[in-house]
């Protein structure tokens, strides 16, 4: 927060280090401690979301159940296992590398645990992108110009303005749980559906506080939202209060009664010209044009880059074709998000079908 402004000014709070105060211009370098929300969360032995004294069964498809003999037998029978004598137990050390591997496989595989712990170095077939075909709604329109290789049936790159690039960058801040919520728990993305359903079905008393509700409908962290995108996930709407807990102990709290002599604070977003009052549009400056490659590598467009771009493509000019694409519905946007998680050709996988449909419509 800003510790330089005189009393009487709004108390500004930012989660970004090195932010300049919009009132006095000085750096907001005064660090503040947050009051613990509950003793339950601070208690030792608990995890982040679930209580430490609860045991769970985690199956290969990441279905999570209460640990009990009945659940074990029922689930194994459903999976087709009848001869329990052929099963054996293994003790495994799960470190950071294994966690990241499970996360990666969970997005692309129906058997992530086997892939990670029993693969024995064998390569697994890659996940095949499956477009979402559920209900479709139009929220806002983002237009891009794509350049296609006719011989390869592939989108080589797209020319886009800030709104589309903001939308792509928002993939890095959008929780998967919020997308699952928008799709009623059906995303067809590896085993993520099973994880989401498991959180729904597990007893809420096994979770810390209301963390199960947070997992089922998370929001984007404050100051990381993007209001101009086809898939809208709201930011956290958290209020902060400044006060004291003991003599000389200044703290902030998410609850007004969490500190003594509370004063309301305003969240300062450094992306805005007037951070305390305006909502940020996105992440990149305007006006600016960008090149977005099929693998979602993003570069700014300049006169010199246009020449090097054509040289890099190494494709005959008569094989190139330009199209205007309107990413205007949440189905198109969702397909692009899923493709970004599972494919090296995200633009082609998610948007090329729009060009084919347009050609069919023209032919008819």
TrEMBL record:
Family matches, as PROSITE patterns: PROKAR_LIPOPROTEIN
InterPro entries named among the record's database cross-references: DUF674
Entry-linked PANTHER family: DUF674 FAMILY PROTEIN (PTHR33103:SF93), OS01G0153900 PROTEIN (PTHR33103)
Protein name: DUF674 domain-containing protein
Origin species: Mucuna pruriens
